[in-house]
Structure formats: structure tokens, C-alpha cells
Amino acid sequence: MAAAQPLKIRMVAGLGNPGDEYAETRHNAGFKAIDELARQAGVTYWKNQAGAEVALININDPEEEGGKRQIVLVKPQSYMNTSGGPISKLCREYKIKAEELLVIHDELDIPAGDVRVKAGGGHAGHNGLRSIIDKMGSRDFSRIRTGIGNPPGKMAVADYVLKQLRTREAEDFQDTCARAADAAGLAIVHGVVYARDHVNGSASANGKH
Question: Does 27 participate in catalysis according to the annotation?
Fold first, then answer.
């Protein structure tokens, strides 16, 4: 069965782990991108709801009642492996379909620094995506895949994604997460397909477009 086409985005969830010990790790790409989206939107208030930090923003959308569309920004606080619980609860509370959900996450299978947009798909071994698919009962949400590349040498994947980044490495990672936020912004305003066509086409240029 073909995947459902993405609808207008009404929720953006960034995946990560709560706590200072995880703040500067590759696994927190989603949290960093959400923080950047919130910064750009001037968010000053986060509320705790359904096991997540939640902020509400409004964007201009002439097709919506009142000319505005509400976007729910979400950072699940339940740890990566159980991200689907808070996200699925919030989707029910805000009456948001899987096709209206955009998830930002780290991606081992994409070179570090690359950002790509995807509509639907499996979890490819990513525990956060696996949890969301399980709890939502759907794979039809869209994703911003934030490339972190594969671990060097024989380093274990868990050590690689949870390693604290320092100085230059951390700066490069922050830049990648900012571009993931930009990609999410394109998807919110112009649609997932538009964002995919514009962002993925320039992946080979490492986001410099």
C-alpha cells in the first residue's frame, strides 16, 4: 500500500534525550533544531504537557481560518526509545494526523553535515522512529534527517551518538542542526514535497545553497 501523501504540517517534534549530559550529543539533533525553530519564532514559553516540552507558534496561512495556522513544537522528555508515547498523546490532544507530523532526528546513514527531507518510510533501526511508528500505528509522518555519519573505526554506535561534542565538532553540529531547522521551516511554510525537492537536491553541496 502506498504511503499517504503529507498534509500541511501542524506539529514538529524533535527527538533527543533530556538532561545536560546529553545536550551536546549527536543524538540530540532534533532538540537542537527545535530550539532553533523556537528561537526564530520568538518563543519565550514552554509548557510541560503529556511528557514533553511544548511550545505553540502561529504562522501566516491565508487558507486557514483567521489567516493563521498553529504549529505545535515538541521535545519529548521520555528519552529517545520511548519518544512515541508523548508524541502520540499530543497528536490526539491537538487532533493532528500522522500526515501532519514532522519529526526531526539524527541519521547515521547520511554523511555528517547533510540534511534531507523524507515523507513517510520505515525506522531503519532508529529507536525514536520505531517508537513513534509503534505508538502512532502509522509510518506516514514526514522526517527531517540530520546527517551524523557513521562511527569511526570500531566505535560502538551508542558511544558515537551519545559522545559529548567539543569545540569545532560542536560548532559544525550546531550548524547542521540550524540547517535542519531551516528545512523544517520550508516544510511548514511551503509543504514537505517542496522542502524535499529544494533541500535534497542540494545535499551534495552539503547544504550550501
Answer: yes
Q: Which of 27, 105, 198, 209 is catalytic?
A: 27
- Under a CB-based contact definition with an 8 Å cutoff, are residues 120 and 3 in contact? yes
Radius of gyration of the chain (CA): 16
**Across 59-72, average pLDDT:** 95
How far apart CA 17 and CA 195 sit, in angstroms, is 26
Do β-strands 52-60 and 11-14 pair in parallel, antiparallel, or remain unpaired? Answer: unpaired
**Using H for helix, E for strand and C for coil, what is the string for 116-175?**
EEEECCCCCCCHHHHHHHHHHCCCCCEEEEEECCCCCCCCCHHHHHCCCCCHHHHHHHHH
d(C-alpha 118, C-alpha 141), whole Å: 9
What pLDDT does residue 206 have? 46
Amino acid present at 186: L
State pLDDT tens for residues 97-119: 999 999 999 999 999 999 999 99
